[in-house]
Design brief:
Helix content: over 70%
Distance between the termini: 32 Å
Largest sheet: none
Order of helices and strands: HHHHHHHHHHHHHHHHHH
Structural class: mainly alpha
InterPro entries: TPR-like_helical_dom_sf
Shape: globular
Length: 354
């Protein structure tokens, strides 16, 4: 809009900006916010603070993210680290909740670490913890441990966030097969005076028992106890560990019992990437089991569902891996893939690419 170049008063820009937000005009909002910062009669720091406060009070997440983006771009170009750190922090908190932007938001979050000293201590701790759990989800286990330890070192509250950071460290060490340090941090975790510590520590003790002893069947009753202690939306990780043990023991009755009771443990509301990951893993195990038993309808349907959850998070390699088991079966049998399965694959592709 050409008339924007003729405006000289910051109050006019502010009035126009709030009007553009109320009208839902994203393009105009971005232009006016940028022009406000370029206004020669404005105080740059006051204008940046105004935009930062405005973004925080804007209910529409898209517009909030857009304004933080204007702040971060201007601050980066003009060397203003305080507002660059604050805007990157807010952008990361918004973007990390998007299933399709988990990798992009992690990269931007790691950029924030260069400016983290400009954040308030509570924001620094939150950044370390959020990035640490994000790294664990991406299977960057060493980064997870490093980030969570940094947060713990600055965290003097020792609250639920601290407990979650310890959990992430323990799980990362288990994944790295460093069971000694996993036990060390589990001991420290059990000293925290927080909710759910007993429940989670019992679960992790059972996992460590299964990982570090040859008598893994003794972990089953421990995991079953953990399963009964959890609400439905938190049961699936325990179920997947039980499945793994049953499969390793060749306990088909245990496996079938889990599959036949899935209505009691599948999440009723899938809202986190972690839930999607466990659902993808669960339906992959279910699909492989039933294919091996000759139940191709159940097996293929489960593997396609597994792929659906992985694709929802843009984990394309995992989605392809789940579908690959279907191709592998029909290739080994030297049979053509049924048209009905090809149709379902096409639907899966179409739905998640529109």
């Amino acid at each position: 809009m050409p008339y924007l170049d003729k405006i000289k008063r910051t109050k006019t820009f502010e009035l126009l900006l709030e009007t553009a937000i109320n009208q839902g005009n994203a393009v105009l909002t971005q232009k006016i916010a940028s022009k406000l910062l370029e206004c020669p009669k404005s105080n740059t720091f006051l204008s940046l603070d105004y935009l930062y406060q405005l973004a925080g009070n804007t209910e529409n997440i898209e517009f909030r993210f857009l304004i933080y983006g204007v702040i971060s771009q201007y601050s980066r170009e003009h060397g203003i680290p305080v507002f660059l750190a604050r805007s990157l922090y807010q952008k990361y908190l918004i973007q990390r909740d998007s299933f399709k932007k988990l990798d992009e938001s992690y990269i931007e979050g790691m950029e924030l670490l260069h400016y983290i000293s400009y954040l308030h201590v509570d924001e620094r701790v939150m950044t370390y913890y959020k990035l640490g759990s994000h790294a664990l989800f991406r299977r960057c286990h060493e980064e997870c441990i490093h980030l969570c330890k940094k947060g713990i070192n600055e965290d003097h509250k020792r609250d639920e966030l601290t407990a979650k950071a310890y959990l992430a460290i323990i799980i990362a060490y288990i994944e790295l097969r460093d069971y000694i340090l996993a036990k060390v941090y589990l001991d420290a975790y059990e000293q925290l005076d927080c909710l759910n510590v007993q429940k989670e520590s019992q679960y992790l003790r059972a996992i460590l028992y299964a990982k570090t002893t040859d008598d893994i069947e003794k972990a089953v009753p421990l995991l079953l106890d953990c399963l009964h202690m959890r609400p439905q939306n938190e049961k699936l990780p325990v179920v997947n560990d039980l499945l793994d043990i049953y499969i390793r023991l060749g306990d088909e009755l245990g496996v079938v019992d889990i599959f036949e009771s899935e209505s009691s443990f599948l999440p009723t509301n899938v809202g986190t990437p972690n839930q999607c990951t466990h659902l993808g893993l669960y339906f992959r195990a279910k699909g492989n089991f039933y294919i091996e038993k000759g139940d191709l309808d159940m097996g293929c349907a489960s593997l396609l569902e597994s792929a659906m959850y992985y694709k929802k998070m843009m984990k394309l390699e995992e989605a392809i891996k789940s579908i690959g088991y279907i191709f592998e079966y029909y290739t080994d049998k030297k049979e053509n893939l049924p048209f009905s399965i090809l149709q379902k694959m096409e639907i899966l592709y179409t739905v998640h690419n529109t």
